[in-house]
Amino acid sequence: MTGRIIKAISGFYDVETPEGTLTCRARGKFRKDGLTPLVGDMAQVERDTITAILPRKNSFLRPAVANVDLLVVFASDVIPVTEPYLIDRILAIAGSRGAETLVAVNKSDLAPHSELAAIYKRAGIPVLCTSSVTGEGIDALRSAVAGKIAVFTGNSGVGKSSVLNRLDAQLCLPTGEVSQKLGRGRHTTRHIEIYRLPDGTQIADTPGFSAFDTDRMDLVVQDDLLASFPDFAPYLGKCRFPDCAHIAEPDCAVRAALDAGKLEPTRYDSYCRLYRQAKSLHEWE
Ligand SMILES: Nc1nc2c(ncn2[C@@H]2O[C@H](COP(=O)(O)OP(=O)(O)OP(=O)(O)O)[C@@H](O)[C@H]2O)c(=O)[nH]1
Ligand SMILES: [Mg+2]
Ligand SMILES: [Zn+2]
Question: What is the pLDDT of residues 161-194, one digit of tens each?
Fold first, then answer.
């Protein structure tokens, strides 16, 4: 039988098959081959064992998921505040792996004029303002995820599970108070699981990132990076040097746009950080 892995907890996988959901172990051979079954994988199962993983459309290290159509990056302007770099980094990783992206700035009831949302709107990146309290943006989010395999990601406490509960009140997923003192979430969601909305849409809730997690995230290859910066596109090809990296070269059209206030400083800063990281990866290889 073949089915989708919808849940993974310490070596046990729930696989949704035509005969119901089976809890399976992975075949021992996988560990030897360095292959880890991921939530979202299509798997072949025999009795209670996963015997093969079908080819993936894409896969991610953090959150550890596969076959993602749409990555929804949750963010917030109020505690926990989301650093634009975390958003830009996730966008770049998703872009390089062929997943669509959407930024959802949640808790709009607490911060009606979102600076974060404005940054992404100006950058030409799909963005929604949502609130699991007032329901703002929930219908728009529902349309954006419809019929897809979507993954909710973002820092802990921004409201991923709360919004999922709002999309389907039957789910009753646990949510947790944000620590006012530390200004961050408490890592309420502990495992990755795909939930099915009544219309068949599949959404994975995932554990939120902590401030230290970015070091252990996926890496982006240098050549893929600019594809995730559509806001830079009008200036590409207009620099003095055709191989301009837009970091410190003279007569750089991207930096000129930044100086003229046409590019968001946080976006340019993220680009430089991601570029340096991609470059050191390249040299290391
Ligand atoms: N005011 C307001 N509070 C919200 C909203 N969404 C979530 N919260 C609150 O934010 C806190 C964290 O919500 P969660 O849904 O647990 O956040 P999470 O992103 O799933 O967190 P992790 O599972 O730790 O990654 C809870 O106290 C929620 O009630 C919102 O739209 N507005
Ligand atoms: Mg959660
Ligand atoms: Zn340049």
Answer: 999 999 999 999 999 998 888 888 889 999 999 9
Task: Based on the fold, state whether residues 75 and 153 are members of the same structural domain.
Answer: yes
User: Which pair of structure tokens corresponds to residue 196?
Assistant: 């099915």
* Confidence bin at 29 (pLDDT 50/70/90): confident
Name residues whose C-beta falls within 8 Å of residue 19's C-beta, 6 or more positions apart in sequence: 1
Ligand 1 pocket, CB under 6 A: 106-107, 109-110, 131-133, 156-162, 175-178, 185, 187-189, 207-208
Q: How far is the CA of 129 from the centre of ligand 2 (A)?
A: 18
Decide if 60 is inside a domain: no
Determine contact, residues 53/43, Cβ cutoff 8 Å: yes
Taking the C-alpha atoms of residue 51 and residue 53, their distance in angstroms, rounded to an integer, is 7
- DSSP-based helix, strand, coil % in the chain, nearest 5: 30, 25, 45
Domain of 13, CATH number, reads 2.40.50.140
pTM value surpassing 0.70: yes
My answer on whether 208 and 229 are in the same domain is no
The pLDDT assigned to 219 comes to 72
Q: Number of structural domains, the chain?
A: 3
Amino acid at site 67: N
How far apart are the CA of 90 and the centre of ligand 3, in A? 23
pLDDT band at 282 (very low <50, low <70, confident <90, very high): low
So what's the pLDDT on residue 33?
86
- Give the integer Cα–Cα distance in Å for 85 and 73: 12
**Residue 201 sits in the same domain as residue 228:** no
